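Students often ask why inverse folding is considered easier than folding. One informal answer: many sequences map to the same fold, so there is more than one right answer. In these notes we will look at a single instance of the problem. The structure comes first.
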């Protein structure tokens, strides 16, 4: 039974992470149809790729936060865990800005803020538990490409993206 708190902690961190995914997902309910209307650059990922990639990335984020919490607790890692929670909010907000409200400029500005928050979270996680920082690197790479895609979509679709 000594591992029960750790397992419950993992479940909690995954629940928090996937709750943020759900909030963003609510804004993306009609994303497929909208994305299909957009003129896309030739290097844009195919629409079917987004859901599996984001699922894996959210899973890795939850495990990373759990690793930090398990290593240092809330008191020992309050700043990195707070950064993690803030970047989850920013992550969910992007979907609302882009898909629900169709604000290309705001979505681009917000994803750049998200990128900075992810870098800060990686640095904070790395100091507590290096593996946790490493687990967030694919997320940073995906958001980097998403930022470039956001910019390209906004440029190519000024009427649809405000």
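Output (designed amino acids):
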């Amino acid at each position: 039974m000594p591992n029960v708190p750790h397992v419950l902690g993992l479940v909690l961190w995954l629940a928090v992470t996937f709750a943020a995914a759900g909030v963003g997902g609510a804004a993306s309910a009609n994303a497929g149809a909208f994305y299909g209307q957009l003129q896309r650059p030739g290097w844009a990922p195919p629409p079917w790729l987004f859901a599996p990639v984001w699922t894996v990335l959210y899973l890795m984020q939850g495990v990373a936060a759990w690793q930090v919490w398990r290593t240092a607790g809330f008191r020992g890692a309050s700043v990195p865990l707070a950064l993690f929670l803030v970047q989850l909010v920013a992550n969910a907000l992007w979907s609302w800005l882009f898909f629900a409200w169709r604000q290309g400029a705001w979505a681009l500005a917000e994803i750049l803020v998200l990128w900075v928050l992810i870098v800060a979270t990686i640095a904070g996680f790395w100091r507590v538990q290096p593996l946790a920082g490493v687990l967030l690197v694919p997320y940073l790479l995906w958001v980097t490409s998403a930022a470039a895609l956001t910019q390209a979509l906004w440029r190519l679709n000024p009427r649809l993206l405000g």
